[in-house]
Write a structure and sequence with these properties.
Blueprint: E1 2-11, E2 17-28, H1 35-58, H2 62-73, H3 78-88, E3 95-101, E4 105-115, H4 116-120, H5 146-182, E5 204-209, E6 215-219, E7 227-234, E8 240-246, E9 257-258
Parallel strand pairs: 8-9
Antiparallel strand pairs: 1-2, 2-4, 3-4, 5-6, 6-7, 7-8
Length: 260
């Protein structure tokens, strides 16, 4: 197994900074593996090494140091900040330029071009101010009857949960990748190097792993007190599909099972 990464850092006029990387990866087949499995693993490893390279460059930016200082003020370790950046970098992929199979090895050539300044700003700068007191729950506005308000609220609940699904989808991808790479389901988010602040926010109060790849989320904000659970089942393009249940009332066209 061998990896080659040639990197060129370009300054495109202050303060903009871009990164251009040429990447190569050679991965040897294991017993019983197909060409596709070997090449998929090579691409996965190359992508992980790309993310590590990007993080090392981002760590030299002013934006990173601002966030590092804010984390320190909140008594959070720098490792949590690094994990937050790695999570944000998951959609940064090498552009494959060539692939060759020798019968026992897969050789890949790829390239990556990215805006370091933009990547450095992806992790939100946490507020170090005291938290604002929670506002009172919604109430019907003057002139609107309770039933109409209830229907309107249910529609907003559905929209709010749909917004939270961007985080759910990202976690499902990480869990699936962990399973395909290791052959077992992760026992915790920490096992996938996912820090709490990468998941929690105005829509999700807490997320944690249960058994056999099952993920549970305690919702926040408008959906405070509700839960969503999602779990893997056999099927799908990569051999894993997902189902879910929630205590949120989503109406007759729910995309999740209704839970008690």
């Amino acid at each position: 197994m061998r990896t080659v990464i040639a990197a060129l850092l370009l300054v495109l006029g202050a303060p903009a900074m871009a990164m251009s990387l040429a990447l190569a990866k050679v991965e040897r087949a294991r017993d019983g593996e197909t060409e596709q499995q070997v090449c998929d693993r090579a691409m996965q490893l190359m992508t992980e090494e790309l993310h590590a390279s990007l993080l090392s460059v981002i760590a030299a930016t002013d934006d990173y140091h601002q966030r590092k200082a804010a984390y320190k003020k909140l008594d959070r370790s720098e490792s949590l900040l690094e994990a937050a950046y790695l999570s944000q970098l998951q959609d940064e992929k090498p552009a494959l330029q060539g692939q060759r199979w020798s019968g026992s090895r897969c050789s890949l050539r790829a390239r990556y071009d990215g805006d370091i300044d933009a990547l450095a700003k992806r992790v939100p700068l946490p507020s170090t101010d005291k938290p604002v007191a929670k506002q009172a729950e919604d109430a019907p506005p003057p002139g609107m009857d309770p039933r109409t308000w209830e229907l309107f609220s249910s529609s907003r609940d559905r929209a709010e949960l749909s917004q939270a699904f961007s985080t759910v989808a990202a976690l499902r991808t990480r869990i699936t990748e962990y399973y395909l790479r290791s052959g077992s389901w992760p026992e915790s988010l920490d096992a996938m190097q996912i820090a709490p602040e990468q998941v929690t926010g105005k829509r999700i109060r807490r997320a944690y792993m249960l058994h056999d790849g099952m993920l549970k989320l305690e919702l926040a904000g408008r959906l405070e007190g509700h839960e969503l659970t999602t779990w893997p089942v056999e099927g799908g393009v990569r051999g894993v599909d997902w189902e879910c249940s929630t205590t949120v009332d989503l109406g007759p066209n729910s995309f999740c099972e209704q839970a008690e």
